[in-house]
Amino acid sequence: MEFLDVLGRVPKLEFIKKAPAHEGGVYFPDKGEYYFSSPWNSNELPGKPVNLMKMSLKTREVSFVSKTTMANGMTLDNIGNLVVCEQGFLEKRGSIQKINLHNMTSTIAADNWKGLPFNSPNDVVVKSDNSIWFTDPDYGQTQHFKGPSEIGKNQVYRVSINGDVRAVADGFTKPNGLAFSPDEKLLYVTDTGTTVGYLSFCTLNYSNSLMRRNEALYWLIKTSVPLLLRDGTFDPTKPHDINVFDVEGSILSNRRVFASVAVLEGSLPSIGVPDGIKVDTQGRVYTANQDGIQVFSPKGKLLGLIRVQGAVNMGFVGPHLDQMIITNSTAIHSVQLNVQAAGLLYAKAYHHHP
């Protein structure tokens, strides 16, 4: 059974600690740290800031790094800079930031397409040529922390090493996570069009200010009860898919659905919300969903589930890049796997992997 090959002989899912750990999920080998963004408490408009956070893999201490403009997905480029999607907030533009993690200086890699501000950059990956590829859904608009979209489309963009920004794919409802296959001949992009993104953790309290303003979609986890609040923010007819493209240089073609994602167990609604996505060196695909990390074969066959309720994103860490850290907005989990992450060229060079 291929899923047992992924898990290894003695699979163990470990709860590390409670923490405000939402998106991102980036291993920085120089300091043995794992970087991520905190969740946005949208029930307190104009909103608590989304912070850049980190965890020491040795001590497991979680600490604050810096305030951000609604940071979300992130990755490392091939020279060790942290590349962060900042969604923007109100009048502040969304952008792709590059941060030197040794001195914490930052530069803007991109903040517009043809002079138009991005919607709300969501997730990002860096190719071996150091080009930056990112998704730009309109969550900032549908979640009401930004004004109307000036672009009017939800697209995937590529930023060349000289800063040229080009749209490489459109036609999405909500493009979200993205990852390259090991040989970079394929690009996987999730579409979470089923929800405007009000996936959060709260208690069942109808006096909650946001619940008075918006009957949004909430997962009430652990001490609470799963509840679907219906006001059109969850539409099962919209995409809940992993798409895949052929890649030739900077060109994407032959778009098709790799897998449609559903919740595999429990009392949550049956339609999935595939968020963050990663790939291992054998071409298997991992996506974060409400019920945990779903694992697919290179041909799109569902292999199994690593059960972490409310999973948002994940990342590979360690000298062999075989340990997965999973975040679900309120806690951090870890699982040792019998695989190695694809990509992550900076970490592989640091640890002298071929």
UniProtKB/TrEMBL annotation:
Q: Which domain of life is it from?
A: Eukaryota
Cite the SMP-30/Gluconolactonase/LRE-like region domain residue spans from the record: 24-194, 239-329
InterPro entries according to UniProt:
6-blade_b-propeller_TolB-like, Oryzine_lactonohydrolase, SGL
- What's the protein name? SMP-30/Gluconolactonase/LRE-like region domain-containing protein
Q: Which organism is it from?
A: Ceratopteris richardii (Triangle waterfern)
